[in-house]
Amino acid sequence: MSGLITVNEQTTVNVGSLSFTEQIAILGNLAIQGKYSLPVAQPGVTATAGGITSGTLTMTNSSHGIVNAQRIDVYFPSGGWIIGVTVTGVSGVTVTVGATGTFGGGASAYPTTGQAVIVATPQQINLTLTGSNAQLIVLQNLDTVAANSALFGFYAGSTEDFMIELLGGRLYEWDATNGVTNPISGDSITALYVSHNNTANAVVLQVGIATN
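^ that's the sequence the OP posted. Answer follows.
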């Protein structure tokens, strides 16, 4: 999807009796816009010792839907995550994971044996985007539970370029006029992976990107 568009943005912040309002208009080519409905995430526990980079997870639900060779993101309720994990085997509620993935959010290992994990199936959104040409990046987690998280990861090939976690209801916005460094500048973005950790409901995530 492409085409020249004008993005109108208004921000209002009320502090006591004061109201702060900003209005801007950005002209750019629409690179992508979309709402992505992702299935409910699956709860489980670690079945091998903490510190592993590969091992097994025991899922809570027999209908977890995870299959061999798929890509998963594993969230840790104790804090952090590992993204881009490859499933190397599935037998009932036992899911074996390979030594792949990137830890983040302060985590450097899986939780210790028996500790909670949440397994998400990320959606891959294919892009052909020169990062330096970005004029606007808007991302939003529409989860109504404020404590839940969603991850948005921009990739150049297989290399993670920019990752951001958004709590339920929260929005990320970058534009070329705000004086903040372009988070994907200098890279050729080929994919955006998105996932969430809500184990009760499917969640919609929104993405909008415009370029020069």
